[in-house]
Amino acid sequence: MGITEDANRVNTLRSYLNFKSRIEITDGRIFHGTFVCVDKQKNIILAQAEEYRQGKEMDDAFYPVMTSFSTDEKRLVGLIMIPGKHLVKVEVEDLDII
């Protein structure tokens, strides 16, 4: 990978700043928010983010009180950092379609 390729990728990421984004992570949660930052480890920061949970059973040590939830469940989380190692899918709103 050359310097030119890296520069093109950085410019592409810069062009996504302040766009609405949708991020899916490994545990099935989905976050919608404004893309404000990414680093070398692919950690992503979203502002004004909302968390949406998939409709599946959750019964483990991480969610001790919650045994299930519906697909319609969402909550405002505000400013959030999503670790790169948990990313499954990242989508950015395409304003050219509107």
TrEMBL record:
Pfam families: LSM
Segment forming the signal sequence: none
SMART domains the record matches: Sm (SM00651)
InterPro entries, per the entry: LSM_dom_sf, LSMD1_Sm, Sm_dom_euk/arc, snRNP_SmB/NAA38-like
Lineage: superkingdom: Eukaryota
Domain Sm: 11-92
SUPFAM superfamilies tied to this protein: Sm-like ribonucleoproteins
GO cellular component terms, A-Z: NatC complex
Official protein name in the record: Sm domain-containing protein
